[in-house]
Write a structure and sequence with these properties.
Number of helices: 14
Order of helices and strands: HHHEHEHHHEEEEHHEEEEHHHHH
Number of strands: 10
Strand content: 5-15%
């Protein structure tokens, strides 16, 4: 009987039950992973229960009911305060939590975009035959990579306070658009009126039409070799259709400009609060420090990725008569992306986590406000620190998932 069973297994039959657990490597692996996961969950549950019991013995509460408490925390006016609509004394700790996350995400997203663009440009400059561009990129990369980020944050904060005019004066940062003083940067603010939703719908439709046209133009080029002016036509679609709807709907969007008060007592002169847009100097200093510092590392990643592409590819592009810029965009960079994207993900994660250094200059992000001021007022250290860790973990996992998806889209498929 046993010899017949052995012969069946040798002929391709699958083991089941205890036999599979003993002899099948995949089944053993799944079993031990399940056991490990259960042990980890049990250990966490025991740790949480013991922490709760110890806190109860000390007369301290354990829970998350503090989110409903009213908040009297004074928070610097930022983009997050506009999104959440936060006012001290009128909102709760939950609103402070959402505000801190919003400020962190705004800083991280803006930093990632600018660091990527500036880093790619610097990486290409590093390989340029132009002596000035090459020397500038080299000095920039070597200088910023070897100076601590916290010191750079302090530097930009000091520069902004020393160079900018006083709080009762102003100067132009961008002529006709942005004004600056030591209190911050002031600029126009869009005021949406009734009917602007039609313009947003038109913009979404334009995005869909532009995407469909780009896909059609790509298939047409693959089949016939004929190129279409995709950039020009899509630009016209994305601008023209929303602009037409905007004009037909009666221009339901006005621009509110900052009002600089020059009359009255000297102490009351300056920009009128609540009129126009406002960028806190802490945000500007932190933003410049983060993206300029991260761009230096991205530049080296881009340079290494481009140099990893075989030299024969650029020579073949030149033999076909492609200009250098077109060869870079169509031949070199698409192949370099498979080397660039994985380490680029780490730099995006580092930039997001480095935003926690904002506590050093008082910018109200997650660590400074929620794990700092809120923790001091509420006193729930375990709960608040656990929440902060979880938030950073979720942001990092989402960033990694997106970059992995992007990497799968751009990587070369070998035939």
């Amino acid at each position: 009987m046993s010899s017949a069973s052995d012969s069946d297994i040798e002929q391709g039959g699958e083991r089941t039950g205890l036999a599979a657990l003993v002899f099948d490597a995949k089944a053993r692996s799944l079993f031990f992973q399940a056991v490990l996961a259960i042990l980890i969950i049990v250990a966490i549950a025991i740790a949480v229960r013991n922490a709760g019991a110890n806190l109860a013995e000390q007369g301290r509460e354990f829970g998350f009911d503090f989110f409903d408490r009213p908040s009297d925390i004074q928070i610097l006016t930022t983009f997050g305060t506009w999104l959440i609509g936060y006012e001290a004394g009128e909102n709760t700790i939950w609103d402070v939590f959402l505000l801190s996350i919003a400020n962190t995400l705004i800083l991280a997203v803006a930093g990632v975009i600018f660091a990527t663009l500036w880093g790619f440009l610097l990486g290409i400059f590093r390989l340029s035959n132009n002596f000035v561009l090459n020397s500038f990129a080299t000095i920039y990369v070597e200088l910023l990579r070897n100076v601590p980020l916290l010191l750079q944050i302090f530097f930009w904060t000091a520069v902004l306070r020393l160079v900018a005019p006083g709080p009762r004066d102003s100067g132009w940062l961008v002529p006709g658009v942005l004004q600056i003083n030591s209190k911050g940067i002031y600029g126009p603010y869009p005021v949406v009126e009734d009917g602007f939703g039609y313009t947003m719908v038109a913009f979404l439709i334009a995005c869909v039409v532009a995407f469909v046209f780009a896909r059609w133009a790509k298939r047409r080029q693959e089949q016939t070799g004929q190129q279409s002016p995709v950039v020009l036509i899509n630009t016209g679609i994305l601008i023209g259709l929303p602009l037409l709807v905007y004009l037909l709907s009666g221009r339901p969007l006005t621009i509110e400009w900052p009002n600089f008060v020059t009359e009255g007592p000297i102490l009351r002169r300056g920009f009128e609060r609540g009129v126009g847009s406002y960028i806190a100097p802490e945000f500007f200093a932190l933003f410049v420090a983060l993206f300029s510092y991260t761009a230096a590392f991205i530049a080296e990643i881009v340079r290494a990725g481009i140099q990893a592409v075989p030299k024969g590819q650029s020579e073949a592009a030149g033999a076909l008569g492609l200009p250098g810029s077109l060869a870079m965009r169509k031949v070199i960079l698409p192949q370099a992306f498979r080397v660039i994207v994985p380490p680029l993900t780490s730099q995006f994660l580092n930039l997001t986590k480095n935003s926690s250094l904002a506590a050093a200059i008082g910018y109200p992000e997650l660590v400074a406000v929620f794990a700092g001021t809120t923790l001091n007022q509420v006193g729930r250290a375990i709960e608040i620190i656990a929440i902060v860790i979880l938030v950073y973990l979720v942001i990092s996992l989402l960033t990694s998932a997106f970059m992995n998806w992007f990497n799968n889209r751009v990587k070369l498929v070998e035939r």
